[in-house]
Queue: 2 jobs
Job 1
Amino acid sequence: MNLALWLERTAAVSGDRPALMHGETVVADYSTFHARAAALAKALGARDIASGDRVALFMKNCPDYLVVLYGIWIAGAVAVPINAKLHAKEAAFIIGNAGAAVAFVTPDLGPALAEATDVLLIDVTSDRFAGMTSGEGRAAAPKDKDDLAWLFYTSGTTGRPKGVRITHGMLMATSLAYPVDVDAVSREDAALYAAPMSHGAGIYAPIHVLKGARHICPASGGFDADEVLDLSQQYGPISMFMAPTMVRRLTDRAKAAGRHGDGIKTIVYGGGPMYRADIEEAVDWFGPKFVQIYGQGECPMAISALSRDDVADRTHPRWRERLVSVGRAQSVVEVRIGDADGQPLGPGEIGEIMVRGLPVMPGYWENPEASAKALRDGWLMTGDVGVLDDDGYLTLQDRSKDVIISGGTNIYPREVEEALLTHASVHEVSVVGRPSAEWGEDVVAFVVAAPGKSFDPVALDAHCLSEIARFKRPKAYFEIAELPKNNYGKVLKTELRKRLEETT
Ligand code: AMP
C-alpha cells in the first residue's frame, strides 16, 4: 500500500481543515495540500519520473516540504531528503549516489547546489513549481509494502554517508507504533517542525497526516527557542521532535524568560544521549511533557520508547534508573543484546543492541557489503552497546566505537559524562579515549564551563573520585568553548579525538 493514501483519505473527509501552516499563517487546508501534491505527482510523471525513480529534497523546513514529499510518493517515486545544513558538495554526493534525476530546493540552497551538480533543480518558490503544483492531479501509484519510499542518508560521521532503504511498509510500522508507544494523536493537535524534516521530524509527518492534525513549520525554517514557545502558546496542543541539545536550549531559554511552555503537549526527544540532569531540569520546569525514543535511520524512530510516565513519575521506585534508559522495545520490534557473534545475552549483560521487526531496513542503497555487515540473520546490528534489565528496559552505553578500553577494561564515556554533569561548574562535557602506550587508551574529558563558573580540573577530579570508580576518572581535562556537533546536534567525538591527536 502507498503511504500517500493516508493523505488522500484525510483530504476526502477533512478537506476543509487546516493542514499546513508557515509560522502563524495557514497556507493550505487538507484539500489544497492533497490537490497540490497530486498535481506535482502528475507533473513529475510528465517529466519522465517513473515509479521507483529517486527525487531529492535539499530544502529548509517549510510547508512545501510536505507537498514535495507527498507529490513524490503519489507519483510512486522515492524521496531523498537531504539535511539542509549539509555543504552543497555533500548534497551533490548524495544526489549522485542516489541517482536522483531531479532535486527540489529552497532559494537559499539552490545556487550553491547548482554549482555542484548537473541534475535539474526546481526552486519551490519559482513559477515553474507553482505551475507543477496547480494542474490536474493523479491518484496515488500502487505500491507494495516492500517498495522504497525514502532513501535516508546516514549522518556519515565515520566515512561517506550510506543510503538507508526505507520502504512504505517501514514508514507505516513506525507511524502506527507512534500512537501506541509514544503519544496519542488527534486532529486538534499540531506537529511543529522545529527539527530537520529530512530526519526524525519528517518521519513523524505521516501519522499526523493520517489523523488530520496541523503541520506547522516555523517561519525561521529552523530551531529558535522563542519562536517555538510563541507558536506553542498560540497554536497548541503542539507535539514536536527534538534532539537532546534542543531540549536543553529550550529549557535554558524558557527559564530565562519565565515561560513554562503553555501549549506544548509533547516533546519527543531522542537521536542522541539525554543526560539525567538535563531531563530532570526540563521536566521540573515544563512538567510531564516528555517522551523519549531511540531509533536509527536503519530502524527509523522505532527501536524503543520511554513513556511520559516513566520520564515523569518520581514516585516510582525505579524512576531514576529508568530515566537514563531509552525505555522498552516499541510494539513493532524485538530487541536483544548480542555478544561478538550475535548470540543472545541475558538481562544485565552488556553487548551490542540488535533489532528485528517491521520497521527494520532491508539494506543500504547499492552497498551490499555494508548491508551484510549491518544485517545478520534478519537482525539489525545497531552498532550501539547496551544492556536490558529484567523488565525489558534498555540502557544505551555508547556507540561501540566510542567505548574506551583502558588497561583491558571497558569504560563507558556516558557514565563518566553523567558524573561530571552533576558538578555545578560543568555546562557540557564529552569524554573520549586517547591512545596511551601504557593503558591502550586513557580517559579524557572536554568540558564546557557553566556560565560564570571557572574550569577547575582539580575540583572535577575530586568530584569524579566521589562519584565513580577510580579507574574511570579522566586522566586529563581540556576546556573547550563549544563542543563540535553535527547538524543534528550530536557531539562529534571523531572531531574531539582528532583534536587530541593534533595537540598531543
Ligand atoms: P541516526 O541514524 O542519525 O538517527 O543516528 C542513530 C544513532 O543515534 C543511534 O544508533 C544511537 O547511537 C543514537 N541515538 C538515537 N536515539 C538515542 C537515544 N534516545 N539515546 C541515546 N542515543 C540515541
Job 2
Amino acid sequence: MSTRRGPRMVLLGKQGSGKGTQGERLAVQFGIQHLSTGQMFRDSATAGVTAGLEAKAFMDRGELVPDDLVIAVVHERFQNPIEVQPGFVLDGFPRTKQQAFELDRILEAHPIDIVIDLDVPTDIVVDRMRARGREDDTEESIRRRLELYDTETKPLVDFYRERSVLATVDGLGTEDEVNAALLKAVGSRFPNGSE
Ligand code: AMP
C-alpha cells in the first residue's frame, strides 16, 4: 500500500510576486490542488454567489476580505478530503495571523511541509500589477494592498520561520528560473515528493 502524497505548501509573497502563476505550475508538477482564495472569490463573484459579491467590495478597494469570510471558504474546501489529501498549494492564504491560527486548526494533524516566501522588490511588483491591469489593480488599491501586506502578512514570514518551515525564494527571473528555484526549495523539505 502506498502512502505517498504530494507536498502541503503555502506561498507567501506580495501581490504581483508571481504566486498565482507559480502556484498553478507547482500544482500540476506535483499533482496537487492549487487553492487560491483570491481566485475562489473572483469565481464566486462572477457566479453571483453572495459571499463572492460581498468579498468583491473589499477586493476592489484593495482591502483584505474579513477573516471570517475567508476562513469559512477555506474551511469548506478542506472538508473535502479527496481534494486536499494528495497535498495542496495554498496561494494567498493565510494573509493574517488569525488566518494562520485557523489554518493550524483546519489542518490539525497534517501540518504544512513548507511555506515559501516568494521575494520580489516592491517597485517590480507595482510595475507587474500595473501591467496585468486586473479589475482590482487601480493605483489606490495597489498602494493599499502593499500597505496591508507589510502590516498584516509580512509578520507571517517570521511566524513560519520560527517553526522552521520557511524557505525564501528569489522571485526575480524568468518563469522557468523561478519555477526551478521553487522545485529545489520544495525538494529540500519534501524529498520524497513526486516528480
Ligand atoms: P489575489 O488573487 O491573491 O491577488 O487576491 C485578490 C484579493 O482577494 C486581495 O486583494 C484581497 O482583497 C482578497 N483576498 C484573497 N485572499 C485573501 C485572504 N487570505 N485574506 C483576505 N483577503 C483575501
